[in-house]
Amino acid sequence: MQDIRATVAAEFDQVNQLIVDQLHSDVDMVENIGHYIVDAGGKRLRPLLVLLAAAALGKNDETHISFAAVIEFVHTATLLHDDVVDISTLRRGRPTANAEFGNAPSVLVGDFLYTRAFQLMVGLGNMEIMTHMAETTNTIAEGEVLQLVRAGSPDTDETQYLDVITRKTAILFAAACYGAATLAGASNTQREALEEFGLNLGIAFQMVDDALDYDGDPHTMGKNVGDDLTEGKVTLPLIHALRTGTPDEKSLLRQAITDRSAQNIEAVTTAVQRCGSLEYTRVTAREYRDSALRQLASLPPGKARDTLEQLAAFSVNRNR
């Protein structure tokens, strides 16, 4: 990630500073929780996409700095809300904001970050960006509700899973790229290509996340293995194992999903590994990565486009 960030290092530092500046509030709790989750770090992958897409188009100015902060604020707000809904206790190697401060403050500060994002967008003075981001945040909310509705249902299929991760995760990747291209004055062809790049990249990224939930190192990931199962999330590794496993494995998996329990996580992990479900998930993720890479052909050759390719490779080859 350090090599990837180096391509837009100066702009990336400006985004981080703007995020800190925009966390200012007269209400101490807002600043405390805002800084708590932002200071935890993270990959900053979504704002990085804004900067790299803009750089690939040959224009990276203050509007892209502001829009990158918008994207990160929207993402951070969803994390705060997600952790409350999922009753999560660990993120990025330390207690979640809801575990540290409580559910109500976390939800309300998440609301603050959403509204701060839209204040920044108003400052951009671009109605197309406003419209697109309003639609994007609405779609994310729908994805969260769909995931909640389908939690604990072992009958969730691959199409339904893809629908959820597209709405919940990939759509913000797509919006980051589309917004960057719009602000750069790119052609419709380039905007659509970058949006499709972001969408496919986001799907691939989420699929790898879902595989890591069953074979990742909790110390490296900064979260507990098996969290998805505890939350009743039926992700691609489970869907594939339910389709290909033995009757006993299917019974085990259905029970674990229905109970929303990681009590038998070792047996569940053994089943998804024996069925080749983790490899199936990663192969599928690589297919979406390849679809993303094909969209970059409309961009001019250069360091930034090469770095977007590097970022796509990182998204499917990571261990956290």
UniProtKB/TrEMBL annotation:
InterPro entries: Isoprenoid_synthase_dom_sf, Polyprenyl_synt, Polyprenyl_synt_CS. Keywords: Magnesium, Metal-binding, Transferase. Its cofactor is Mg(2+). CDD domains: Trans_IPPS_HT. It comes from the Bacteria. Gene3D superfamilies: Farnesyl Diphosphate Synthase (1.10.600.10). Pfam families: polyprenyl_synt. PROSITE patterns: POLYPRENYL_SYNTHASE_1. Belongs to the FPP/GGPP synthase family. This is Octaprenyl diphosphate synthase. It comes from Candidatus Marimicrobium litorale.
